[in-house]
Amino acid sequence: MSETNIDTAITPETRIAVLLKNYPELEEILIELSPTFAKLRNPILRKTIAKVANLRQAAQIGDVPLSKLINTLRCAAGLDKDNELEEEDMTEVTSKPEWVEKTTLKTTFDAREMIESGGHPLTRVMEDLDNMADNESYRLITPFLPAPLIDVGKSRGFQTWSEEDNDNQFSTYFARMLG
Length: 179
What we know:
- The protein has 179 residues and is α+β, with helices and mostly antiparallel strands.
- It has nine helices and four strands; from the N terminus they run H-H-H-H-H-H-E-H-H-E-H-E-E.
- It folds into two domains: 16-83, no CATH class; 98-176, Translation Initiation Factor IF3, CATH 3.30.110.
- The protein has a four-stranded mixed sheet with strand order 1-2-4-3.
- A hairpin with a 2-residue loop joins strand 3 and strand 4 (169-176).
- Helix 2 packs antiparallel against helix 5.
- It starts with 15 loop residues before the first helix and ends with a strand.
């Protein structure tokens, strides 16, 4: 079995920026797996989103099974095939949960312009969420599924749900965990 340096390992927690720094040739493989990843060619998004998003989140964003993403990248990089990732249960709620309808929408923040200009909405969104009461919800509009931001919201006790409104717009709802 070959030893893999932790900096060059490809795992679900590998950041996209680290992956592409160590394996620049994998950019085309990512794009082949999901056209959504073509956005990585945008230097502004590359500097912002790629630094915070890991491959687990990228699989969600690109709608690619995590095991397929990791195993394809490992194979293309010539890494140990004995360590193939098994398919995880990625069952998600696809219909709108009750809490979205039962809460009062307090704020809608359209972050598309901020993201396209190289900004990251994390600080603004977390400040907004910190000012919410129970039974209030928050709608975030982005040009892609904001998986890293969703993870932060969940880690702070918020329920989340996302839907794709059209090809270039996602709405992600946040609410405090209710009773």
